[in-house]
Design a protein that fits this description.
Blueprint: H1 4-9, E1 24-27, E2 30-33, E3 42-47, H2 54-65, H3 67-72, E4 75-81, H4 85-99, E5 107-109, H5 114-118, E6 133-138, E7 144-150, H6 158-174, E8 188-190, H7 196-204, E9 209-212, E10 215-218
Parallel strand pairs: 3-4, 4-5
Antiparallel strand pairs: 1-2, 3-6, 6-7, 8-10, 9-10
Length: 220
């Protein structure tokens, strides 16, 4: 059954595991078609409510100053707000002149709200004309792997965004799960045994930290 929000937007909101909806858009780096964007890379796509606003300025400055960390994780940044390309360009230059921080990643000019509606970034009980602070983590196959939503007045946590991005990548590579508060270098959770033979092997494996047979951790 569709929610009221889905009915108002005329489309279902993307969910974890869905293929990221495709679109074409004008950005501060030129026109893009999302299905062709950042081939063989992860994408962190994030929306902000408006240019020339205080919380958004701190957030995009955070993405900009830590862009090298996203680069090291084979990840492209892609911003969005319901502003014109001229507003984006003026804001980018204003921040650079005042703080020295340069938003060197594409920001979508979503003046017709097309992409914001496609991704459920417009939430009428918060605002009908400004996107909430959404973050979509999209893997190289263009599958949505994790979604965060924040209201207009609360800034995001860049450490957490980078933490979960790295967790997703390491989990994929090693087929493991991450416990509470995991960060790089911490032990990871290995999958529970599915047969008696696997159970017996687990019990005999002294290399694991075993809380019980179903909860075991190891260093990678």
């Amino acid at each position: 059954m569709e929610t009221n929000l889905e009915l108002q937007q005329g489309t279902s909101m993307p969910r974890i595991g869905d293929t990221a909806p495709d679109f074409e858009a004008l950005t501060t780096k030129g026109k893009i078609k999302f299905s062709d964007f950042a081939k063989d890379k992860w994408v962190v796509m994030f929306s902000h409510p408006a240019d020339f606003t205080p919380v958004c300025t701190t957030e995009l400055s955070g993405f900009a100053t830590r862009k090298s960390e996203f680069d090291a994780l084979n990840t492209e940044l892609l911003g969005l707000s319901i502003d014109s390309i001229h507003s984006h360009m003026g804001w980018v230059q204003n921040v650079r002149e005042n703080t020295g921080v340069y938003f060197d990643f594409p920001i979508i000019a979503d003046i017709d709200m097309k992409v914001a509606k496609l991704y459920g970034m417009l939430q009428p009980n918060e605002s009908e004309t400004a996107a909430v602070r959404a973050v979509f983590f999209i893997d190289p196959s263009k599958k949505i792997r994790l979604i965060m939503y924040y209201p207009l007045n609360i800034g995001r946590n860049m450490d957490e965004i980078l933490r979960v991005l790295e967790a997703l990548q390491i989990s994929d590579e090693h087929k493991v799960s991450m416990p509470l508060d995991w960060k790089k270098g911490d032990k990871v959770i290995v999958g529970p045994p599915k047969t008696l033979d696997e159970l017996n092997a687990r019990l005999a494996d002294d290399s694991l930290e075993k809380v019980d047979f179903y909860l075991a951790k190891k260093h990678l």
